[in-house]
Amino acid sequence: MAGCCVPVTSDGAEGLVFGEAQRTREGRVIGIGRPPYLPGKTGRVTEADRRQRLLLHEIERVPGAQQVWGVGYIGSGEADEKNFHHGVVVTYGSS
Q1: For residues 39 and 50, is the Cβ–Cβ distance under 8 A?
Q2: For residue range 18-53, what is the model confidence (pLDDT) as tens digits?
C-alpha cells in the first residue's frame, strides 16, 4: 500500500532517522525541525500556506558520513486549484 510507512535509515552514529524524527543510540527521540514555509500559488506565504506538511517518500544515509538525504514533498492539502505540492530534497546531519 503506497504511503503507509514512515521511511527509516541509519544515522551513521548507531541511531536511526525516521521521516520525522531521530532516535539516538541512547534511545532518545529528537524531532526534526519543520522547514521554512514555502509560498503557495500566490507567490507569498499566506495563512492557508501555514498548514503545510513535509512528507518524505525515501531517506538514505550518505555512506561513510553522519548525514541523511531525503526526497518527498511539501504540500498544503490535496493537489487542486487551491492547494499545492512542491517537490523537495532535504538533508539532515546527526551529531
Answers
A1: no
A2: 766 667 778 777 766 667 788 877 888 888 788 888
